[in-house]
Amino acid sequence: MSMLYxxxxxxxxxxxxxxxxxxxxNVASAQDYPNRPIRFxxxxxxxxxxxxxxxxxxxxxxxxxxxxxxxENRGGASxxxxxxxxxxxxxxxxxxxxxxxxxxxxxxxxRKMPYDALRDFAxxxxxxRVPLVLVANPSLGLTDLAGLIAxxxxxxxxxxIASSGNGTSGHLAAEVLMSATQIKLLHxxxxxxxxxVMDTVSGRTDLNFSAIxxxxxxxxxxxxTVIANGSSKRFSGLPTVxxxxxxxxxxxxxxxxxxxxxxxxxxxxVIKKVNGLVNLVLQNPEVANKLSSLGLYPIGxxxxxxxxxxxxxxxxxxxxxREANIRED
Length: 329
What we know:
Helix content: 40-55%
Shape: globular
Number of strands: 11
Number of helices: 11
Distance between the termini: 69 Å
Largest sheet: 6 strands, mixed
Strand content: 15-25%
Order of helices and strands: HEHEHEHEEHEHEHEHEEHHEH
Number of domains: 2
CATH superfamily of the largest domain: Bordetella uptake gene, domain 1
CATH topology of the largest domain: D-Maltodextrin-Binding Protein, domain 2
Structural class: alpha/beta
Radius of gyration: 23 Å
CATH class of the largest domain: Alpha Beta
Oligomer: single chain
CATH architecture of the largest domain: 3-Layer(aba) Sandwich
């Protein structure tokens, strides 16, 4: 019996030693991090708005981290392909992913996903909020939301609103608007945002709820009329455009977001270090001004800010999708 006791004791001591060694290794790796290039997966094609933000971030983080941040574009399936690759990467801090609404808070309620958006990722930082604005073809003669409501009430279900597809941010924003204002618009889904916007410019459709980067130049050239800002505050590039909330619908906010995440299991020390440096970059006036010129609000904050946003947005869009009986294309 005594021999068995000592054998078990030795095994316990060995397991304890290995556990302590592993803990020490994690602390050391966090202290030395990074010691090799970082892979930054962007689930969009090169040149997309998200790609521009990711490369701007990588450019300014490089001198702070001392290692290259290699942006890897893996577009397709509304961001799910690249996001899935990141979900299955080793949780060592050397794979980052650029997060956005569809891949994390919308698509999980529309289709079967190859990853769990809330469990398979560790939030690092909220990067930007992306205002969604309601635009109209100028031929309608609209200048504000009140005018649209009056016109829609006279023509229920006849005004068309384009989006880049069923269940996209623009479509959900339109559904939230119709619910809040009690008007009925005819949704016209497209296969992409560029085509949807240009058909509103041409007059094939009347309206579009779109991210500011997609329509800013068209608004400034008067090819589209911005009649309301869906986010919680006015955009500096369109200072005279009132928010939907200011127009009498308190609490209305349909802005999208960009965030930085890593696979679940990455050391908390590594996440804390990257979060701190990302916040420094977002506070850099050069970076802030560039993001603003693109129609984005730099945000930052602790990892908990992004974690809470993921949870609340996921719950919100699940309710909208269910109540509007939305199905994917």
